[in-house]
Design goal:
The complex is a heterodimer of chains A (about 350) and B (about 650). By secondary structure, chain A is an alpha/beta fold. Chain A contains 14 helices and twelve strands. Chain B contains 27 helices and two strands. In chain B, helix 12 crosses helix 20 and helix 12 runs antiparallel to helix 21. The longest helix of chain B has about 35 residues. Chain B starts with a helix and ends in an 11-residue tail after the last helix. The chains are: A alpha/beta (about 350), B mainly alpha (about 650). The interface between A and B is large, with 54 and 56 residues.
Chain lengths: ~350, ~650
């Protein structure tokens, strides 16, 4: 019920914004009609980015008139496709790239495979998600703070320390939890399965997967949510995830455990990676030199998509409950997700090397 | 359950549902016939059309497509010796020799009727299995998965041909190739040598095509005839059907194996056909014909690989845990039509699950029926002069390899693995054993590491582990029972050699590979090194055994001494052209691609090959080349895929498609 009301509000708000902004778009926007546009997805067809792009693509096609074609270029955990894009894409609006957390993370970490630079790109659309950590009720703890106080030995099935799992691993560490990460999981669904077989006792899922696949476990009493990673407000502050208003976010739990708000280099680092992995997980970008009217035309098309009743009716079910944003809001997220203070980067790299033997 | 089943059937038999199912099946047939373009590509092509369709029809189309791919990929496996997808690699072993004997239609008839049977029986099993699926699936922790991978490896025993040590060392080559890339426990890059491509590991498609298809192409070209040695094709497809009926219990068992292994997430579909094949060899009384055209070697993998898709649906639908790459895309398709995988598929939405399960079965009937109907016509391909077919085969193989990771290095890896395959074939090293090692390398390592982390020593006393261990023991015992010891199969020409130098060189090469793997592993941390180091050490011993065995044979016929090229004593004919003659054509194709890109290179190759080797007239040469171009351009356009690029494309980035990027 409340979700549909939220939708209605959202729809109305976007429509009003559109109507107000329409003359401006009309004056400035270039015509994309009939142009062939290649949208590179640096992953294989089966992943989350493929799912997202396939949902967005028909709307982009409809509202821009461009003949949008998805081009999947898997390899190197998306660095290969992004490198190729950086080298090849022309600044004429015919080449789009869909990035993801796995594209942002190696860039932020200064991975040697990365030959692309987010500073050379301009965001057109930003996609958000969140994450929820849950534990086995057998541990006896009811909340994250209780868990941190009892310090049982926990196991966590991970895809790798430099993957999106960096965010939970660092969070566990800073809460003082005794978590042994077991690597080599092929995706979050494998991690979830290890939790279900009882091999691990703590796990996390992104919001959409949590809602559809962990909620039934919570209902039957075999999983217990303890915290979300949080969300960002308009100013970039960490707040409770609107999808999980009853769950404390990471910084709240930290405060409960340590009696003070998290701060310092490590927290700057955590927040940068959290942003790049969750509330600013995916972007559609073009090269920075793309003519402004062309970029505006895309923005206009994406804005129309956001107001499209069909989009609104299907979005939650198909790509998740968070709003996608364009324009200044997307810019803000883009900055937060692709810039990390030098000492914070160094701190994370050192931590990864010390704790998980990661070689840079 | 009964209500749900009835509701499912009423949806199923709806005309609209049937119609879209058939559309999906037809698309799957077309995609499946092209080797390498399996379910992932098919579903990706289909998904754009799903927008705005009503969920029932969309679902029917999706399922129709998924169901038929392990059926239609059999065509190239049997007719060309090219594994159509990872699901029918084992079919090549006996299917292709049958085609060469002129029994292609019989082999296809058997394969498709087994597919049909496997699919139907799989659906029956699933109908009941769904109800107990959750505890069964959750029973398989990493410890059990590790044991299942070991069971897979134990099949090497029955697939290793004359010499068990050669089989073990072949498997070792696979393990080493499989260890290339990031270590599962630490992410360290192993055996990468600074090549970015290797960091992701070599794709299975590339290894499968290289190890099986390329050596066949080379041999067929040297044979200078058609694929079928017989002049008449025979009206064999009814015989194939009879073969299936005669071996119905075998098909039943293999369908069961396929369903269950398919339903266990984490093992992956690519071992199912090998386990089924291993099973039939183990349990057969007379093993002499396996590998040279035993119809049971076709029936077993084919009845298992169709049942597998149904099994794979279960963890996909219930937990959203895809059992394979194509299931991952299938989930994407489900979500697009508004079906979210969840445990509700077992309770409130059980009828949807049943609709999917039985749609799959129905699609199998339609798909296998269509394939049976088409097979006499398609089997005629085997009567065409191979010099005309070869350029097309090479184009299809290269394209299939290339679309694996869309990197020119796919092509390089294909040729490198192809050279290895040519050597293994010539010297009697088991290629199936190599492939099994490759497929299971990652799983054995990952699951062992994870199981030890999760269960520590308690792992050894888990009931599931003990049960599977018992199965492994029985399986090895069955395999060792009346194993032909030392003596090559009766009718096969004695292929031992007087001149041992080439064999020793090859065995020395294998030993060298193991030494390099061992040396590389020493640079890594314990967790990343322990698997490649222990595998390479064992294999080093096996490799040295083989080397010593060949050396000691002193040119006499022993199980070690095997070389198809250097005849020993009898009047064994070797073809006019040497192995390297056609390999050089292949290397030229690769070299030219590195210079001018795939499109230009392939055109030159077609013109030169058809003129010089096939001795065709200019007009036919040009017509065939243009046909190839059109197919290539169509595929490239359809999949938005840049063809492999060479120096030319790097120097001149703005070349128009298809010369440059799309």
């Amino acid at each position: 019920m409340h979700r549909s009301i939220r939708h209605l509000f959202h729809g109305v708000a976007v429509t009003v914004a559109m109507v107000l902004a329409f003359p401006a778009f009309n004056a400035a926007a270039a015509d994309l009609k009939g142009k062939t546009v290649t949208w590179t997805i640096p992953f294989s067809e089966g992943g989350g980015s493929g799912r997202w792009a396939r949902f967005v693509e028909p709307f982009l096609r409809k509202h821009s008139g461009a003949d949008v074609r998805l081009k999947f270029v898997p390899g190197g955990g998306s660095t290969k496709g992004a490198n190729l894009y950086a080298k090849r894409a022309k600044a004429n609006g015919r080449d789009l790239l869909g990035t993801s957390g796995s594209t942002q993370f190696p860039f932020l970490l200064g991975d040697k495979r990365v030959k692309y630079d987010y500073g050379a790109w301009r965001p057109l659309l930003a996609y958000a998600t969140g994450g929820v950590a849950y534990i086995s009720p057998k541990l006896g703890a009811k909340t994250a703070a209780e868990l941190a106080a009892r310090k049982p030995s926990l196991k966590y099935g991970s895809q790798g320390a430099t993957s999106l799992d960096l965010v939970p691993l660092l969070a566990f560490e800073m809460l003082g939890l005794d978590v042994k990460a077991v690597f080599g999981m092929k995706g979050r669904s494998a991690g979830r399965k290890a939790f279900m077989t009882g091999e691990t006792s703590i796990d996390y899922q992104t919001s959409a997967a949590y809602l559809s696949k962990v909620t039934p476990l919570v209902k039957e009493g075999s999983a217990l949510p303890v915290m979300s990673w949080g969300a960002l407000d308009d100013k970039g502050n960490l707040i409770r995830d609107p999808n999980f208003p009853d769950l404390p976010h990471f910084a709240e739990v930290y405060e409960q455990v340590h009696g003070k708000k998290p701060s310092g280099t490590w927290f700057d680092a955590w927040k940068a990676f959290f942003t790049a992995g969750f509330p600013a997980q995916k972007f559609v970008v073009v090269p920075k030199g793309t003519p402004d009217d062309v970029a505006k035309a895309y923005e206009g098309a994406f804005n129309k998509m956001l107001a499209d009743p069909e989009y609104i009716a299907n979005k939650d079910k198909k790509i998740g409950t968070y709003d996608q944003v364009t324009g200044a809001a997307a810019e803000l997220k883009f900055k937060a997700a692709t810039q990390v203070p030098a000492e914070a980067r160094k701190w994370v790299r050192d931590w990864l090397t010390k704790k998980y033997n990661v070689v840079f | 359950m009964l209500d749900a089943l009835l509701e499912a059937f009423s949806t199923l038999l709806h005309a609209q549902h049937m119609g879209f199912l058939v559309v999906g099946v037809l698309l799957g047939l077309v995609v499946g016939i092209f080797p390498g373009l399996g379910g992932i590509v098919g579903l990706s092509l289909l998904i754009p059309f799903l927008h705005g369709m009503d969920p029932v029809s969309a679902l029917a189309m999706l399922v129709g497509l998924v169901a038929v791919i392990p059926t239609s990929d059999t065509f190239t496996s049997v007719l060309m010796g090219i594994p159509g997808s990872s699901a029918s690699q084992a079919t090549v072993l006996d299917g292709f020799p049958l085609a060469r004997k002129g029994e292609a239609a019989r082999a296809l008839g058997a394969a498709f009727s087994a597919s049909l049977f496997g699919g139907l029986f799989g659906a029956v099993i699933l109908t009941f299995f769904v109800l107990i699926a959750r505890p069964v699936i959750l029973f398989f922790t990493t410890a059990e998965l590790f044991m299942l991978a070991v069971l897979g490896i134990s099949m090497v025993g029955v697939l290793s041909g004359n010499s068990i040590w050669k089989g073990v060392a072949s498997c070792g080559l696979g393990l080493v190739v499989g260890a290339i890339g990031g270590a599962p426990a630490t992410g360290e890059e192993r055996l990468v040598f600074g090549v970015d491509y290797l960091a992701d590991g070599i794709p299975l498609v590339v290894v499968g095509l290289g190890i099986f298809a390329l050596p066949e192409v080379v041999d067929l070209l040297r044979g200078a005839g058609a694929i079928s040695r017989a002049h008449a094709l025979g009206k064999g497809w009814l015989d194939g059907l009879r073969d299936m009926l005669r071996n119905r219990w075998l098909c039943l068992r293999c369908a069961g194996i396929g369903t269950l292994i398919g339903a266990i997430p984490g093992l992956g579909g690519s071992v199912v056909d090998w386990i089924a094949y291993g099973h039939v060899v183990q349990t057969a009384q007379d093993k002499s014909q396996f590998g040279s055209g035993d119809i049971r070697g076709v029936l077993a993998p084919e009845s298992a690989n169709n049942a597998k898709e149904g099994g794979g649906l279960i963890p996909t639908l219930l937990f959203g845990i895809p059992g394979s790459g194509s299931m991952a895309v299938f989930i994407g398709g489900l979500v697009l039509i508004g079906l979210e995988p969840s445990p509700r598929m077992l309770t409130a939405e059980l009828h949807v699950t049943y609709t999917i399960v039985w749609s799959l079965a129905l699609a199998n009937v339609v798909g296998a029926g269509l394939c049976l109907f088409l097979s006499p016509a398609i089997a005629r391909l085997t009567t065409i002069r191979y010099h005309l077919l070869a350029p097309f085969m090479l184009m299809v193989i290269s394209f299939a390899a290339f679309q694996a990771s869309r990197d020119i290095m796919d092509f390089v890896a294909l040729v490198a693995i192809g050279l290895l395959g040519v050597g293994m074939k010539r010297f009697g090293w088991s290629r199936p054993a190599m492939l099994i090692g490759f497929v299971l390398a990652d799983q054995i390592e990952t699951y062992l590491y994870q199981a030890i982390q999760f269960h520590e020593w308690g792992m050894a006393t888990r009931p599931g582990v003990l049960i599977i261990a018992a199965i492994i023991v029985v399986s090895i015992w069955l395999g060792a029972r009346n194993r032909p010891t030392g003596e090559p199969a009766a009718e096969a020409p004695r292929r031992h050699a007087r001149d041992l130098a080439p064999q020793l060189l090859f065995a020395g090469f294998a030993v060298g590979v193991f030494v390099i793997a061992l040396a590389d592993s020493l640079r890594h941390t314990l967790l990343a090194a322990v698997f490649p180091a222990s595998a390479a050490s064992v294999m080093l011993v096996a490799g040295l055994f083989v080397f010593w065995g060949i050396w000691r044979s002193a040119g006499e016929p022993t199980s070690y001494n095997e070389d198809a090229e250097r005849p020993g004593i009898e009047g064994h004919e070797t073809p006019e052209r040497g192995i390297w003659y056609y390999l050089n054509w292949l290397l030229a194709l690769l070299g030219m691609t590195a210079l001018g890109g795939f499109f230009i290179s392939l055109n030159l190759f077609f013109l030169a090959f058809l003129r010089r080797e096939a001795k065709e007239s200019w007009s036919r040469t040009v017509v065939l080349t243009v046909m190839a171009d059109l197919v290539l351009m169509f595929l490239s356009w359809l999949m938005t895929l840049d063809l492999p690029e060479g120096l030319l494309q790097h120097a001149v980035p703005d070349l128009p498609w298809p010369l440059g990027p799309i």
